[in-house]
Amino acid sequence: MQATAIKVKAIAVRAVPYKESDMIVTLVSVESGKITATARGCLKPKAKLRYSAEPFNFGEYVLQGSGGRYVITECNQIESFSSVTADIERYYAACMILESLERLSKEPQPMLLARSLSAISDLAYSGKDADCVITSFLKDVISLNGLSLDFLHCNVCKCDIEADAYFSDRDGIVCRHCKSITDIPIDAMTRAYLGGGTEDAPHPIRQKANILLSNLVYQMLGVRIGAHYFTESI
User: Fold this and answer.
1) How many Å apart are CA 230 and CA 199, to the nearest integer?
2) Are the beta carbons of 71 and 45 closer than 8 angstroms?
3) Using one digit for the tens of pLDDT, what is the confidence trace for 139-169?
4) In the chain, where are the structural domains located?
5) How far apart are CA 94 and CA 194, in angstroms?
6) Nearest in space to 170 (alpha carbons), one of 159, 162, 179, 161
7) How far apart are CA 163 and CA 134, in angstroms?
8) CB 193, CB 175: distance < 8 Å
9) How far are the Cα atoms of 13, 39, 175 from residue 53, in angstroms, in the given order?
């Protein structure tokens, strides 16, 4: 099969060394979803395309190849997000976003890619709390997959939830009167934060909320994410 060149707008989500000086790069693109490509010679000190293999690099990539085997031949960098590495908490949060994007992008998901870029930008350049950025991102991951959750109202009886809530595989968020024995409990403070709370919520509550959302992503989408982020940031 003859090699052809394709151009994609993509972010590098993962890179691993290959042979002496190459890297195998996982890209998530607007046009084709997840793509694997080789960055030849990029580990050499003076490699011109070294940046193309760095996680968080977002740009227009030109790939040469066929049958799913590609080589990066050009990259016009749009954004590096390099400042996200200056703070370890923000870096781990941004890595979680890359992990989520990679695992959820077997097929093209331009809306998820756009939301991921926005969240990484917030972590790199804004003063927004990292926990809150992750909360908003994970809620959007669920919503973009058509599974939006309302943490303020019971999805069965429609009452205003004022205390603990529960997550039901069948019904979503429910009150204590509508729960079943197998539903996942959500304490009142965590539920209130997820229902629209601000950065005033203490870190343990924000952290607990994000662990819960990560678990709900697994329950609803079958994709487990964020283990390293939660381990390192506790």
Assistant:
1) 18
2) no
3) 999 999 888 899 999 999 999 999 999 999 8
4) 4-79, 83-150+195-233
5) 20
6) 179
7) 24
8) no
9) 9, 6, 48
- Look up the CATH architecture of domain 4-79: Beta Barrel (2.40)
Q: Are 94 and 123 in contact (CB under 8 A)?
A: yes
- Provide the β-strand partners of residue 79: 58
Structural tokens at position 57: 């690099």
CA distances from 91 to 12, 83, 119, 121, 232 (A): 15, 9, 12, 12, 11
Token pair recorded at residue 206: 């924000």
Q: What is the pLDDT of residues 83-118, one digit of tens each?
A: 999 999 999 999 999 999 999 998 999 999 999 999
CB 150, CB 172: distance < 8 Å: yes
